[in-house]
Amino acid sequence: EVYVDMIKAGIVDPAKVVRTALQDAGSIAALLITAEAMITDVPAKDAAPAGGGGGGMGGY
């Protein structure tokens, strides 16, 4: 096992880390804004009551 300084080894680029974090934050913010605009409650209209039963149905 070898321990190295990740920045000196070129594994971690601080500018890339910051850029990626900002891109991810912007992506999540856009998702929340879009989701908020898409979620809505449509008021249900009250339907007319059902009609009465027909006459002459066996004398019950």
The helix/strand series, from N terminus to C terminus, equals: H
Q: Bin the helical content.
A: 40-55%
Task: Count up the helices.
Answer: 1
Shape: rod-shaped
Low-pLDDT windows of residues: none
Fold topology:
Blueprint: H1 14-38
3D architecture notes:
The structure is a single chain. The protein has 60 residues and is mainly alpha-helical. The protein has a domain at 8-39. Helices cover 42% and strands 0% of the residues. The chain has 1 helix and no strands. It has one helix at residues 14-38. The longest helix has 25 residues, at 14-38. The model has no long low-confidence stretch (mean pLDDT 79).
Quick recap of the structure?
The chain is 42% helix and 0% strand. By secondary structure, the protein is an all-alpha fold. The protein has a domain at 8-39.
Defining traits:
60 residues, mainly alpha
